[in-house]
Amino acid sequence: MTKSRLMYLPLGGAGEIGMNCYVYGYGPADAERLIVVDLGVTFPDMDSTPGVDLILPDVSWLEARKNQIEAIFITHGHEDHVGAVGHLYERLGAPIYARAFTANLARRKMTEHGYSDKTVKTVGKWPETVKAGPFEVGFVPISHSIPESSGLVIDSKGGRIVHTGDFKIDVTPGIGEPFDHDLWESLGKDGVKALVIDSTNVFSREEGRSESTVGPEIERFLKEATGMVAATTFASNVSRVRTIAQAADRAGRSVCLLGRSMRRMVEAATEVGILDDFPHVISPEDVGSLPRENVLLLVTGSQGERRAASAQLANGKYMGLTMKEGDTFLFSSKTIPGNEKGVIHIMNQFSELGVDVVDDSSGGLYHVSGHANRPDLDVMRDLIKPQTLIPMHGEHRHLREHVKIADTAGVQGVLAVNGMMIDLSGNKPKVVEHIETGRMYLDGSVKVGQFDGVIRDRIRMALNGHVLVTLIIDENGDPLGDPWCEVSGLSEMGRNNAPLVDVLEEDLSQFLGRADNKTIADDTKLEKELRTVTRKSAQSEIGKKPEVTIVISRLA
């Protein structure tokens, strides 16, 4: 009889913050029945992924085992956990399970991609479970920064796994279920093989703050502010959105929602009954009829997104609305590492307009994290009492630190990054395989691989410019006139104060004058030589080796 094993494999989110995708399997080696936890995205930046719209996990390994996948489980509605469901469903084809609010968001994404909303199934909270092949999976309510966040209990003959998802310990979260210590302690009473746990704030040693502490501070801020106020936070942080809106209402300000994701998230939360006390919202057209000191704009773009409402306002106007001297812009959010440039750029743009900017550097008065700080992580570990602790949802440094803490507490920790398959079957987990992982880019309407060369070439052109060289060869195999060049992204003049195009064309003509017939007759060899001459000439003139495209046309 073939021995079965219990397996864990992260394909995204382990060694990075974002693009979460975790695989669990049980069964004979290489023939396990599989479940997938979360299908998220991460976001591009202009430095490393210019022009890319979204970044998705590479699920090639899963796609090759499509017939082994029993189900996909989504822990909560943040984009880094649910954002890829519509993009990747065709490649995986398994039913999707989530609680009501998350399921509402997932269905919207599925219908946008032409799939039936019946592909997403709504599940109740623990102790209700879903049978998925050899697994029984339950959604355990947990506090986070979006409603109906859940950890997962994953039971099989191989033992119990507790997957926390994103969480914090908050007994007064505003929206969403408060953290239930007794419930989570009960999950570990019969033994837990592995605790797979959030590691985002592992370096934060102070006690975490409750969402309930933010409202009074924001209300005080809004009462003291003069002029119009715009505030931004993650649209998915429905509790914070409500906190800001209710604070504005108490401060005598009407609320206007700006940005598609902000409006859609409020609509979704209202549809499932989570937001039943949201203040009346006015339209952008109504804003102009009110005194500026009686208006709050609640806008998207807390991370400096170029097309979001906050960026548009900073550029001068959005939906007919403008901000001016005497107004205030509030960031009720924390800047994710890597997004600093975009956020600072928007801050400076507002400053140029005379708008005062307030952010989280004010002592954390207007924002609290949705992730557990180290004391909360310790509490969760002690409640569950796992045999093994596996950190996830963190960069490598977060995972490594979390393993150290577990080891100090007498719990064996396993540092598992993307692509590292862990066998949890025995008393001591072991790495059994390394899977090639990577990223897929949504580039416009098509998906390209991380190593396909598309983005690499785009970066090279951005760094070095581009030259197009065109050459016509006549019926006799002789150049018909001189080659001509078109340049993009390069200086027009070189170091000799001559037009760059003229210098390139002269050097190419000289090369053709001395090239032998064999070279001119061979397109591959000729193209290589023309490219080399072009790059050397450009290097000499402007200090750049551009990307070069050669077009050779031969007359019949």
Written account of the structure:
There is one protein chain. With 556 residues, the protein is of the alpha/beta class. The chain has three domains: 4-206 and 369-449, Ribonuclease Z/Hydroxyacylglutathione hydrolase-like (Metallo-beta-lactamase, Chain A); 215-361, Metallo-hydrolase/oxidoreductase (Rossmann fold, 3-Layer(aba) Sandwich), CATH 3.40.50.10710; 465-554, Roll (Ubiquitin-like (UB roll)). 31% of the residues lie in helices and 25% in strands. The strands form six sheets. The chain has an eight-stranded mixed sheet with strand order 8-7-6-4-3-1-22-23. A hairpin with a 2-residue loop joins β9 (129-132) and β10 (135-141). The radius of gyration is 28 Å and the shape is globular. The chain starts with a strand and ends with a strand. The model has no long low-confidence stretch (mean pLDDT 93).
From the structure above, extract its key features:
single chain, alpha/beta, Metallo-beta-lactamase, Chain A, Rossmann fold, Ubiquitin-like (UB roll), 3 domains, 8-stranded mixed beta sheet, 17 helices, 28 strands
Task: Map the helices and strands.
Layout: E1 4-12, E2 14-15, E3 21-28, E4 33-37, E5 54-57, H1 60-63, E6 69-73, H2 79-82, H3 85-92, E7 96-98, H4 100-112, E8 120-122, E9 129-132, E10 135-141, E11 150-156, E12 159-163, H5 181-187, E13 192-198, H6 214-224, E14 229-232, H7 238-250, E15 254-258, H8 260-271, H9 284-287, E16 295-299, H10 309-315, E17 328-331, H11 340-352, E18 356-358, H12 374-384, E19 386-392, E20 394-395, H13 396-408, E21 412-413, E22 420-423, E23 430-434, E24 439-443, E25 446-449, H14 454-464, E26 466-473, E27 484-488, H15 500-514, H16 517-521, H17 523-542, E28 547-554
Parallel strand pairs: 2-20, 4-6, 6-7, 7-8, 12-13, 13-19, 14-16, 14-17, 15-16, 17-18, 19-21, 26-28
Antiparallel strand pairs: 1-3, 1-22, 3-4, 5-24, 9-10, 10-11, 11-12, 22-23, 24-25, 26-27
Helix pairs in contact: 3-4, 5-12, 6-7, 10-11, 15-17
